[in-house]
Amino acid sequence: QISYLSKYSTSPDEAAFMIAQKIFTRMYDGKSKLYSQVHVAILEKLRESCKKLPRELVTWLSFVEEHKKLDREVTVALLSSGNVLNMAEYDLMISKSIDYGRNEAVLDFAAFLISQCVVELRLLAAAELSSTLDVLTKIASRDESRTLPSAPNGLKALVEQARMKLSETGNPGSDNSIGMKELRSVSSDPRGTHESVAYMLEQWTFMYEMSRSAHSVPDNVVSVYVSQGHIMMSSEEGRERFIRVALEIIGQAFQLMSSNPEMNAFESIRSVVPVSTTSGLDYRMNLPDVIQGSGGLAGIVDSSSAYAVVDAFSKLISAVLRIESNQTLAEEILYGVLSVVVQSVNRASRISSKGKVSAVDYRLHFRLLSDLLRDLAPRMDEKSEVGLNTNNIQVLGLFANVLYFLQPKQVPGFAFAWVELLAHRHFLPRILTTRHEHGWSVFHKLLISLLSFLAPHLRASTLPDSVRTLYKGALRVLLVLLHDFPEFLCDFHFSLCDEIPTNCIQLRNLVLSAFPRSMRLPDPFLPDLKVDTLPEMSTTPRVLSKYTGSLTFNNIKGVVDSYLKSRTPASISAELIPRLMFTETGTSASSNGGRYNIPAMNALVFYVGQLAISQTQNGSGSPITLTSHMELFRNLASDLDPEGRYYFVNAVANQLRFPNNHTHYFSVLLLYLFADAKKEIVQEQIIRVLMERLIANRPHPWGLLITFIELIKNPRYNFWSHGFVRCVPEIQRLFETVARSCKMDSI
């Protein structure tokens, strides 16, 4: 019935697409095998009306929570159908998510796919998971490493078994990228293909430069070329061939013009594909010769720019998309263009990594992607009849998919161009202002990929100039978000702080300084400010970050829940602290630079704090300092070693943000831990964390300021009498300087 409704609706493709989104969302809600199979069966029927569904399903999977992505029962149901998922894209998504073995959950899931779906159940051919198999092979065969986890037991035997099946069916090759189909070889192109495409590019580039030079080009001539481009890109095979050949010619022409500044765009194309080789072929496709008809190149400006052909090609693509009334076909055309661009970037990156070339010039790829974003911006702003920017969502989704598969971890040489595209004026504002919250989660995932790439480099004592420049780019992206989209930083502050190394104080301050645009912050320096009476301190902020997954590490959540319920075991520190630590130093520990699992520590502090706030709001009756939650925090602060305590205090300070009940509770917690501490080292480390954040460049989080001001102003804490404040004159002057900046006099 659902299939019937979509098939016979006014727009079958769109109706099937929207229904599929709902089915996909609910597919993970059930707990039975039958539930999953029914939902997959519906998706299989909807595929008849929505041809792009297999590709879209992989895109949705790449952006859902990890526990859903790794749901084995649903995955088996999807793979059993045979044609619901685009396997090339799915294979690449899994292979990249393994992250060289660092993501142990995905690594275990990938091994499950090979063992169950390839070897035992035979739902898939080994060739369909060739990229995943390649990654598992490398992990299984590598030696012990201080930077990467060792291979799980049995992985090598499993890989060898799957390899035997692969040898039986043949290897499809290793050039697949972003799940797009393998590019056909040049030898399969019909005779004269390069010459026809080169002629069209040459003439179209000339017309583009004519229009830029205030020379009119007859509309009928432009229409003829756009129509021919549309014809060449209407079929899947023709589209792939035209785009691939065009990019090959443009790439070679771009290199020629870069090395020969005096050469113009038209000469570069003729040098790449000489006209003399086309004897006897109708390479012109009955298209008019605009260059000859206009009397040559006189009056054409900037035709010597190496980017002229790239810019013109982008205009051709956007013109073809403009005349295409079928939105599904328009998306397929754009998808084809982006597929070839991404494959070109990946191929160049592989060649560079093998040492075949010293460096790769990614300017062409960056310029084309940037041009397409610019030229398609008007199309993304079109409104559908129901008032939703459906074009916006779908076009932005394609570009987000490109960025996901070209993220810096996968193509480091493309990192600078990648950050430029992430912050592009036609991408960032649109994806964050879409009515669909999916846009926020997509951008969040892209931003996390940037921070996770930078993190190991930023932990180093010295930064290369390249990393320093990339860091500045990330800093500016966060500044834009802080200024224009502060709610995004407010909602995702937790997961962003998880990725930011502890030594990147300013970066973290930027995230934590965000507050909703509808809120007006009280002045933290007012002498009579009563923080407890602020109405905002009773509101609960929205947190979209998924943090509970980190608590599954060593069953931390189970131990914590047991203690909060019955205060057992009594020696909670002895039970909990070892669970917060990595068992093998040099493997997982090296990923964040220490012995502790920092995301688990952050999640523990936030989880317990949220439970305490909820209990207080429900009127438990117990004073906040006598609850089991506070007892747990006090034990950790006292019993952790200096490294663990530093991470613990940082986790608490990460919740000192704009006025809300989280800020209020964790500010009270930090002040209580300072006043109640039996060891001065605890107080010293609390002050260290606060001072590190205060002496960094502005902005400073509001909650951080009110906590420090209370600490130095309230005589209960006896701040100025502590030995670590006056241990050396330089430290004392530093404290006095910070106190003056907070409009407080030292005592």
Structure description:
By secondary structure, the protein is an all-alpha fold. 61% of the residues lie in helices and 0% in strands. It is built from 35 helices and no strands. Helix 20 (415-422) packs parallel to helix 23 (465-484). It is globular, with a radius of gyration of 30 Å. The model is unreliable at 167-187, 276-281, 384-390 and 585-590 (pLDDT under 50).
- In total, the number of strands is 0
Helix proportion of residues, in percent?
Answer: 55-70%
Strand content: under 5%
Task: Report the sheet with the most strands, covering strand number, pairing sense and barrel closure.
Answer: none
Q: Unreliable runs, pLDDT <50, ≥5 residues?
A: 167-187, 276-281, 384-390, 585-590
- Could you tell me the mean pLDDT? 80
